[in-house]
Write a structure and sequence with these properties.
Shape: elongated
Oligomer: single chain
Structural class: mainly alpha
Order of helices and strands: EHHHHEHHHHHHH
Helix content: over 70%
Length: 252
C-alpha cells in the first residue's frame, strides 16, 4: 500500500507524543518510592538499572531493566506493526523502518528528558536496548550478553552500556542500507527517507552518550563507579538464605 506524507503526518505526530510520554514513565523512581526511598538520592543518583542494582539488589535491578526495555520496545513495535508493508508514494523503502526508529527515538528522549521530572531523567540504555531489540532481536541478545560479560570482568558499567546498544544501532543502519540497495531504485525520495531513518538511529545513540557524559569523563580519569555484579549475586544469595532460615525458625 502506498500513501502520501500529507495523509500520515498527524499519525506520526500522535505516535511521537505517545512514545515520548511513555518514555516519561520512570520505573526506577516508582519502584524506589514504593520502597520508601528515592533512587535519585542514592549512589550515582541515576534512576536506572545499574544504580538500582547497586542500591536495592540484583532482582530489583533486573525488574527495572525489563520494564525499561519494554518502555522502548512497545512503541517501537507499534510503529513497525502499523506501517508494515506501507510505502510513501514515489518510494520503495518501507515506512515501518522510519516509524519504528522514530517511535524509539521519542521513547528514549522521554526517558532522558522527561517533562514530568523537569527534564532530568535516566540515561536511556535499557530503553534503547528495547528499541533495537525490535529492530534485530538476535543482535540485541548477543550484544546484551557481551555487555554482561564485560561488566562482570571489568566492573565498568557505562562501557558495558555502550556495548549493549551500539551494535544494535549499527545493524539498524545496515538494515536501512540493505533495503535501499535491494530496492534497486535510486531516487531522491528514497535517499531522503534513508537519511532521515538513519538520522533517528544516530540521534538515539547520541542521546545516550550525552546522558553518560559524566561517566565518560570519569572513565577517562579512572574514577568511574564500579558495578560489581558478582558481589550483588553473592549478597542476593545470602539474603535468600537468611529468609529461608527465618521461615524455618518461625515454623519451629
Amino acid at each position: 500500500m502506498t500513501v502520501s506524507f500529507q495523509m500520515l503526518w498527524w499519525e506520526f505526530l500522535l505516535l511521537a507524543i505517545g512514545s515520548y510520554f511513555m518514555g516519561n514513565i520512570n520505573f526506577a523512581i516508582i519502584i524506589s518510592k514504593l520502597k520508601k526511598r528515592d533512587i535519585r538520592t542514592l549512589g550515582s543518583g541515576n534512576p536506572g538499572t545499574l544504580n538500582m542494582s547497586r542500591n536495592f539488589g540484583l532482582k530489583i535491578g533486573l525488574l527495572t531493566l525489563v520494564l525499561d526495555i519494554l518502555k522502548g520496545a512497545i512503541p517501537t513495535f507499534i510503529g513497525y506493526i502499523i506501517y508494515k508493508d506501507t510505502y510513501f508514494t514515489g518510494t520503495t523503502l518501507p515506512i515501518s523502518q522510519l516509524a519504528q526508529v522514530g517511535c524509539g527515538f521519542f521513547a528514549v528522549l522521554g526517558h532522558v528528558f522527561p517533562v514530568f521530572m523537569r527534564f532530568k531523567g535516566g540515561k536511556g540504555i535499557a530503553t534503547t536496548i528495547g528499541v533495537f531489540a525490535v529492530c534485530n532481536p538476535l543482535v540485541a541478545v548477543i550484544s546484551g550478553a557481551l555487555a554482561i560479560i564485560f561488566i562482570l570482568f571489568t566492573e565498568i558499567g557505562a562501557m558495558g552500556s555502550f556495548i549493549a546498544t551500539v551494535p544494535g544501532a549499527i545493524f539498524a543502519c545496515y538494515e536501512v542500507y540493505r533495503a535501499y540497495i535491494e530496492s534497486s531504485v535510486i531516487t531522491t525520495s528514497n535517499i531522503v527517507l534513508a537519511i532521515i531513518t538513519n538520522l533517528f538511529i544516530v540521534l538515539i545513540i547520541l542521546l545516550t552518550w550525552y546522558a553518560h557524559r559524566q561517566n565518560i569523563k570519569r572513565m577517562l580519569t579512572s574514577e568511574e563507579h564500579p558495578t560489581n555484579w558478582r558481589q550483588m549475586i553473592i549478597e542476593a544469595r545470602i539474603k535468600s538464605k537468611n529468609k529461608r532460615e527465618k521461615k524455618e525458625e518461625i515454623k519451629e
